[in-house]
Design a protein that fits this description.
294 residues; alpha+beta; Lipocalin; 2 domains; 10 helices
């Protein structure tokens, strides 16, 4: 678990999966869990995957699965260990897919000329493995900082908050890690990696995946002609019904808050963790429940 202060993990899990709470509060609590555990999860994924892209994909999939399956977690305080198991499971799936792909590439390579693209694919994987190994050899503080900044795309102030250090100290750790990597790796590998931080943020990608899990079309059984269309629009989850648009949850200044909206959105899940119903509240009164149809 990361070292930043704040609400306890168990409390965040309870808030994130509380079916009585509005979606904006559940989402905000889960966003804090992502911030706390993204570095740990990605480090675990790096150990189980051949390259950073696969590790990032496996890590993102594990977080979205955790969001969907939170009600099944028996001990809220055990979220970190549970998430790590999910990451390892996703990495194993990635390795199986890679093995199958490698077999296909071998067949293609035998059927094509020596200059086949299969050799290029193998070369890229070997280079990615060199980068991964060099990052894992960094001192812990440098490794955590460089993973957050370069691989997960978090700005320095977020990395500092996650690691429980000052922004200046976080910048120093990134700088020293960069020097070490440049000494250990060929310039052809370090230049693309260290030229600049990625433009995306891993936490933002996970938040988008969480909102995508809720998007869909919902229908009121009592009023078949009345449907609710829930869509993700960037960092916003919006609902459309009766010719009106309501922002169900959005990110503003680092906090999820309701905007253009005076009600609450709640979602129900089935035993498999899939969203099954949308429940609409306004001023504390439930106005209706719609079943998911797509």
């Amino acid at each position: 678990m990361t070292r930043n202060a704040g609400s306890g993990v168990a409390d965040l899990v309870r808030r994130a999966r509380d079916p009585r709470g509005p979606i904006r509060e559940q989402h905000a609590a889960f966003a804090l869990l992502v911030e706390r555990f993204e570095q740990m999860a990605f480090t675990c994924a790096l150990q189980g995957c051949d390259d950073t892209e696969s590790a990032r994909d496996a890590c993102q999939d594990a977080f979205v699965t955790a969001w969907r399956m939170l009600p099944s977690l028996r001990e809220p305080a055990a979220f970190g260990g549970w998430l790590k198991r999910l990451v390892r499971t996703r990495c194993a799936r990635v390795r199986r897919r890679r093995t199958a792909t490698a077999s296909v590439l071998q067949v293609i390579a035998r059927a094509c000329e020596p200059a086949c693209d299969a050799a290029d694919v193998v070369g890229r994987r070997e280079m990615a493995s060199l980068v991964r190994s060099a990052v894992m050899r960094l001192p812990r503080a440098q490794r955590e900082a460089v993973i957050l900044f370069y691989f997960l795309g978090e700005p320095l102030h977020v990395a500092a908050r996650v690691l429980g250090i000052t922004v200046g100290h976080a910048g120093k750790q990134v700088y020293e890690a960069r020097l070490r990597l440049r000494r250990e790796l060929p310039r052809s590998l370090t230049q693309p990696l260290l030229a600049r931080a990625p433009v995306f943020s891993f936490a933002r990608l996970v938040r988008a995946g969480v909102l995508d899990d809720l998007a869909g079309e919902y229908r009121f059984d009592q009023r078949p002609g009345r449907t609710v269309l829930v869509r993700r629009e960037g960092d916003i989850l919006a609902g459309y019904a009766g010719g009106q648009r309501h922002v169900l949850t959005s990110k503003d200044a680092g906090t999820l808050v309701p905007v253009e909206y005076d009600g609450e959105a709640r979602f129900r899940r089935d035993r498999r963790g899939r969203v099954s119903h949308f429940v609409y509240y306004e001023f504390g009164r439930r106005l209706g429940t719609a079943r998911r149809i797509s």
